[in-house]
From TrEMBL:
PANTHER family in alphabetical order: CBB3-TYPE CYTOCHROME C OXIDASE SUBUNIT FIXP, CYTOCHROME C4
Keyword Transport: yes
Pfam families per UniProt: Cytochrom_C (PF00034), Cytochrome_CBB3 (PF13442)
Protein's recorded name: Cbb3-type cytochrome c oxidase subunit III
Keyword Nucleotide-binding applies: no
Annotated organism of origin: Neorhizobium alkalisoli
SUPFAM superfamilies assigned: Cytochrome c
InterPro entries: Cyt_c-like_dom, Cyt_c-like_dom_sf, Cytochrome_c_Oxidase_Subunit
Length: 350
C-alpha cells in the first residue's frame, strides 16, 4: 500500500511538469489551417452542448411571439452577426469560413436549440470559438428579442428578412437622407407602431437626444442595440443627427384601440402621483409647455418602449444622464399595474 502511494505522489508531481515541458517545447500545434481532428471536434461540441444545456436549465423564456420583438433584433443581426453567420441578404467573406470552428449558418442549426439555450449562447458567447458575448450584460430583454428573431430566421426568405431588418431596401427610391442608413432602418416612423420596442425620436428635444447618444456611447445607458449603432459614429456628426430628428415633422397617426379604464388610471397617476408610495406626478416634470429639455417627451411614445424603460428604471438598470436619478427614484415603487396604466396613458396621449 505504502509503495502505491509513493507512485501516486511521484505521478502527481511529474505529470504537470511533463505537461508544462510539452507546452514549452512548442510541439503542440495551434494551426487553424488543418482543422480539428474529428474526435477533438466531437468532444468540444459535446462539452459545449452539455454546458449550455446545464446553464439554461433554470431559465424560463418570456412570451416570444410578439412580432414587434423581431424589428430591432433583425437590424442588429445584419450589422452585428451576419458578418460571421451570413444572412439571407449577406454572404460572408471567405476569411470567416477559415475560422476554427467556422461560424455555422444559423438557419440550419437554430432548430436544434431551445429558446433558453439560444439565450445562453447569445448572452454569454462561446469560449474558444470566436462567438462573442452580448455587448451589455446587465439586461436580458434585448437578448430575448434576438432569440425571438432567431426562431423566425429559418423561415425567412431574403425579401422577408430585408423587410424585418429595414436595411438594404432603404434609399433605393432616390431619397437623400442626411442620416446613416442604419438609424432609419430601426427608427423610421413608418416602421413603428404603438407597440414597438423601438422609440420614436421625432419631436424630442435636441438636448435630450444628444445626451442619450452620448450615454449609449459611454456605456452609461446600457443597450446592445444602440451601443453597436453608435460605436463607430464620429462624435461630430451627433449634433446634426439629433437636429434632424428633433425638427422632423411627425407623420399623422391613427389612434389605435385602448382600454379606457387603464388610460384613466394612468392619467390619474401621471397628474397626481401617489404620495403613500412616494410616486411623484409624472406631469410635474414631463410634457409641460416650458419643460426642462432634459426631460423627454412621453406623449405619443410607443407603449412597449415606455413599459420597458419603466421596468428598467424600477430595477435601477436604465442608466442615462446626470438627471436620471430623479427618474430612478420616481419609478422605484411603481407596481406592474401602474406601469401598464402609465404606458397606456402616455402611449395614447397625443
Ligand atoms: C466573430 C464571429 C461571430 C460573430 C460576430 C457572431 N458569432 Fe455566433 N458563433 C460564432 C462561432 C465561431 C460559433 C461557434 C460554432 C460552433 O463551434 O458550434 C458561433 C455560434 C453561434 C450559435 C450557436 C450555433 C451552433 O449550433 O453552434 C448561435 C445561436 C450564434 N452563434 C448566434 C449569434 C448571434 C445572434 C450573433 C450576433 C449577436 C453572433 N452569433 C455573432 C461566430 C460569431
Ligand atoms: C438595430 C436597431 C437600431 C438602430 C440601427 C438604431 N437604433 Fe436607436 N434605438 C433602438 C432601440 C431598441 C432603442 C431603445 C434602447 C434602450 O432600451 O435604451 C433605441 C434608442 C435610441 C435613442 C434614445 C431615445 C429615447 O427616447 O431615449 C436615441 C436618441 C437613438 N436610439 C438614436 C439612434 C440613432 C441616431 C441611430 C443611428 C446612428 C440609431 N438610434 C440606430 C434601436 C436602434
Ligand atoms: C423630477 C422629474 C421627473 C419626474 C417626476 C418623472 N420623471 Fe421621468 N424622466 C425624468 C428624467 C430627467 C428623465 C431622463 C433620464 C435620462 O435619460 O437621463 C426621465 C425619463 C423618463 C422615461 C424614459 C423616456 C425615454 O424616452 O427613454 C420615461 C418612460 C419616464 N421618464 C416616465 C416617467 C413616469 C411614468 C413618471 C411618473 C411616475 C415620471 N417619469 C416622473 C424626470 C422625471
Amino acid at each position: 500500500m505504502t509503495i502505491r502511494w509513493k507512485y501516486l505522489i511521484i505521478a502527481a508531481i511529474l505529470l504537470p511538469i511533463i505537461g508544462f515541458a510539452f507546452a514549452w517545447s512548442g510541439l503542440m500545434s495551434v494551426k487553424a489551417s488543418t482543422g480539428h481532428w474529428a474526435v477533438t471536434d466531437w468532444v468540444l461540441h459535446w462539452m459545449m452542448r452539455n454546458s449550455i444545456a446545464t446553464a439554461s436549465l433554470s431559465r424560463t423564456p418570456p412570451p416570444l411571439d410578439d412580432p414587434n420583438l423581431v424589428a430591432g433584433a433583425a437590424g442588429h443581426f445584419e450589422t452585428g452577426c451576419a458578418i460571421c453567420h451570413g444572412s439571407p441578404a449577406q454572404l460572408r467573406p471567405p476569411s470567416v469560413m477559415a475560422m476554427l470552428p467556422p461560424p455555422p449558418d444559423l438557419k440550419e442549426v437554430v432548430p436544434e436549440w431551445s429558446d433558453a439555450q439560444l439565450f445562453e449562447i447569445v448572452k454569454y458567447g462561446v469560449r474558444f470559438t470566436g462567438m462573442p458575448a452580448w455587448p451589455v450584460q446587465t439586461r436580458d430583454d434585448e437578448v430575448w428579442s434576438m432569440v425571438a428573431f432567431l426562431r423566425k430566421l429559418p423561415d425567412m426568405n431574403a425579401q422577408a428578412y430585408v423587410k424585418a431588418s429595414g436595411l438594404h431596401g432603404l434609399g433605393t427610391a432616390g431619397e437623400v437622407s442626411p442620416l446613416p442608413i442604419t438609424c432609419e432602418s430601426c427608427h423610421a416612423e413608418s416602421r413603428l407602431n404603438d407597440e414597438s420596442f423601438i422609440p420614436r425620436l421625432v419631436g424630442q428635444s435636441e438636448a435630450y437626444l444628444l445626451q442619450a447618444l452620448k450615454d449609449y456611447h459611454a456605456g452609461r445607458r446600457p443597450s446592445g442595440f444602440m451601443q453597436l449603432a453608435v460605436a463607430t459614429l464620429p462624435q461630430d456628426v451627433l449634433p446634426d443627427l439629433v437636429h434632424y430628428y428633433a425638427t422632423q415633422q411627425a407623420l399623422p397617426r391613427t389612434v389605435t384601440a385602448f382600454d379606457p379604464q387603464l388610460f384613466e388610471a394612468g392619467a390619474r397617476l401621471a397628474q397626481r402621483g401617489r404620495s403613500a408610495d412616494k410616486i411623484p406626478a409624472c406631469l410635474s416634470c414631463h410634457d409641460r409647455t416650458q419643460a426642462n429639455p432634459a426631460y423627454p417627451k412621453l406623449s405619443g411614445q410607443n407603449g412597449a418602449y415606455l413599459r420597458r424603460q419603466l421596468e428598467l428604471f424600477r430595477q435601477g438598470l436604465r442608466g442615462g444622464g446626470t438627471a436620471q436619478h430623479l427618474m430612478t427614484s420616481a419609478a422605484k415603487n411603481l407596481n406592474d399595474a401602474d406601469i401598464a396604466a402609465l404606458s397606456a396613458f402616455f402611449g395614447h396621449r397625443r
